[in-house]
Amino acid sequence: MSPRERFEAFLTGKTIDRFLCVPLILNHAARVMGVKIGDYNRNGRLMGDCHAAAWKRYRHDLIAIFSDTAILAEAMGTRLKFRADDVPTIDIPAVTDPSDRSRLTRPSMGSARLPVHLEAIRTAVAEVGDQVPVSCCFSAPFTTAACLRGPDQFARDLIKRRELAHELLRLALEVGKQFTDAVADSGGIPVIVDPVATGSVLGENQFREFALPYLKEQMAHIVRRGFPAVLHICGKTSRILQPMLETGSAVLSLDDISMDEARERVSDKAVLMGNVRPVATLLQGTPSDVENEVRDLCAIGRRCKAGFILGSGCEVPIASPPANVEAMMNAVRTYGSMN
């Protein structure tokens, strides 16, 4: 089966030849073409070409267009510091003082680097979209709000300025829904990532107040556009796994959690995706390490009631040896049969 055939069959409950395999090849795609990250994340055609080239090399089952988690916040006024060969970082948040929130507005889809990502989607779809589906990963409201305020200050706002936090979250949600529509209209599948809302930072009660309501609305909007709701949260997710289920996500992409634990707790409520270790295995391991981890995950995946997608726990590190990514794909072809 081609990746597109496999993906579409999976969504409709038809038999597929093996597990879907989605290593989260994001900025690593630039390495495949040997271009600088700074050029990649500011040039939509180049970004799309990089992902098409990465797919031609690895033949994974879903392309994931992405540069960094601040693209929505940047379009709303956060200033970034760009680096020649690494992802940009926050320089000056849009809301350094609470009074700054009055200047925040919904951006147009031509603002900052939003058109870069939309052009990248269209480019990848034109080049290889007949063979593999193309998605675009972008931040959930919680992560976008944190980028508007600065993550450390936003963490304090959750305690000292709760209404400000909710105000930023509501605006971030509206911009996220707007960008969802732009991604869909460009031929891409919207995928939500929420790295700042990780259980490594938030307890369940905070997640329920500040992340869950906005994620539920974001996911409902994606479903209304006719797509499966896919949620990725980095880091430790054991203590927020139950509210993650309540977001309405059809697929939970998990990072630092035992997949066996996740399988038992999630049961038939969502498809699980993950979670080959990005650093310890894909970056620092050998192809044999990758193969062994994939074999063990596929054994767990066959016992997942709602379904399983083999993926990396988080973004494939930029400097990961291509041989390790290739080993992941080869291993799923060997061990990824459905029975």
N- to C-terminal distance = 17 Å
Rg (CA only):
19 Å
Assigned CATH class = Alpha Beta
Reported by name, the CATH topology is: TIM Barrel
Number of strands: 10
In spatial order, strands of the major sheet run 1-10-9-8-7-6-5-2
Q: Secondary structure elements and their pairing?
A:
Blueprint: H1 3-11, E1 21-22, H2 28-33, H3 37-40, H4 44-58, E2 63-65, H5 71-75, E3 79-83, E4 86-92, H6 114-128, E5 134-139, H7 141-149, H8 151-160, H9 162-185, E6 189-193, H10 204-224, E7 230-232, H11 241-245, E8 251-253, H12 259-266, E9 271-276, H13 278-283, H14 287-301, E10 308-312, H15 322-335
Helix pairs in contact: 4-6, 7-8, 7-9, 8-9, 9-10, 14-15
List keywords for this structure.
TIM Barrel; 339 residues; 8-stranded parallel β-sheet; 49% helix; two-stranded antiparallel sheet; alpha/beta
Walkthrough of the structure:
It is a single chain. The chain has 339 residues and is α/β, with parallel strands linked by helices. The chain has one domain (3-335): Alpha-Beta Barrel (TIM Barrel). It is built from 15 helices and 10 strands. The chain has helices at residues 3-11, 28-33, 37-40, 44-58, 71-75, 114-128, 141-149, 151-160, 162-185, 204-224, 241-245, 259-266, 278-283, 287-301, 322-335; strands spanning 21-22, 63-65, 79-83, 86-92, 134-139, 189-193, 230-232, 251-253, 271-276, 308-312. The strands form 2 sheets. The protein has an 8-stranded parallel sheet. A two-stranded antiparallel ribbon has the order 3-4. α8 crosses α9 (162-185). The chain is globular. The two termini are 17 Å apart. The relative contact order is 0.13. The model has no long low-confidence stretch (mean pLDDT 97).
